[in-house]
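Hi F.,

I've been meaning to write this up properly since the lab meeting, where we talked about keeping a consistent format for the predictions we share between groups. The idea is simple: the sequence comes first, exactly as it goes in, then the structure tokens exactly as they come out, then a line or two of notes. No screenshots and no reformatting. I'm using this chain as the first example so we have something concrete to point to.
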Amino acid sequence: MSKSSKASDFLLTILARFGGKAANLVVFAIVANKLSLADMGVYGYIFTTTLILSTILDLGVRNSIAVSIGKEPDSSSDYTRSAYLLLLPIALLCVPLTIIYLRFGPENTSAAAAAIPAALLLAFMLHQRMLQGASLGQGDIKTFNRTELASRIILVALTLLMLAVNQFSLSTAIWALAISQAFGSLYLAVKQAPKYLAPGASASLSIILRLVRAGIPFMVAVVLMQASKKLAFYTVSYESTLTDGGIFFGLQRLTEVVTEVGLAISVVLLSHNVRATSKEEAAANTAKSVRVSIAVFMAISVAMVALSWVLVPTVLGKSFAGHSLLFSILVVGTLFGAIWTMLFPSLSVATSPTTVLKILSVGLALNVVATFSMTWAWGLLGAASSTIVVNIIISAMFLRTYKTRFGIGASDFIFVKWDDLPVDRLRKKFLPGKNRSGQ
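Output, unedited:
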């Protein structure tokens, strides 16, 4: 793939993710202002648990189908139809699993009114997670981005409608999430129809078993990744109160503008790297993309910390005022987490899912010790500080693995190089005469 095509994919993905994040921010600001802190805790518990369950039920097929189609593009229709066939029976588990996690959640999370929309939310998130892998394997970044944006646009519209008719509650907020994800799923299904409905396409048990066998290590690694990111929130929700959980969830979600964009970049890296000519080429491409991204994230993080005293109450409401220090700590933790978030999918392809699994297993074990001990000692500030400690350690392990396997040092992933800057392109564009004369 040409450099211009790669750059275009990264730019469009970043713009799409920022657009989607802006839409999420509008919705989230309304939700945070309209719901009580306790209901915010329930909202966060449902949202976070649904994300983790969709990853488990996906069985790693998102990654394995991307890798398989990247290696065998002529068989993409067979892989896509097989994935849809696998999705149908798994989706039936969404209702009982939702009832179970609501029943055994923190206080006041077993409200029956939220069960139906939460189950639908899980089913539609599962569909998008699993089948977006087919688009990534085909290099169809446009469909991936538009699927994300479709659900965000509907979510904003529904949230504004609820606000206009004064029908805002925890239940309607979850319904809005579910309906918006339904539209994203509909768009994805329509775009992929030429593949899974192709006359020559065939689904087979052998393909399904191959995807699942290859995907399980990916799934376990992703679940460990999500557990590492969300352990602090769960610890606060169960060990403290839903009000504290609502505060922590609200502030952490606000910091995740960095993580969301980092995750989007990691997805594009995965799409390119499964089709790269060599692992060394994939590793070098990853290093450049990550260090440029880190520079952008650093600027965003500095601005967020500097403006935290006004940003937090303005976006989340007066109930979050006075928590600017907690927010600033979470921003720093999120920044360090963005490093390994971007490296995770590419390293799993460049080496093996087992390599990443080992790193995240160690990381999660350290996370449990750090999070529980620091939360017990210092409450919310301790939980937030544990995210910094844990993300630094996990990022260091990822960087060390790249150094050992490919000889690429940590500085190549963190510090922008002169060649990364578009100086020559700008000079040629704005000073063409000077370039021709050599002056």
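Notes:
The two ends are 34 Å apart (CA to CA).
The longest helix spans residues 353-406.

If this format works for you, I'll send the rest the same way.

G.
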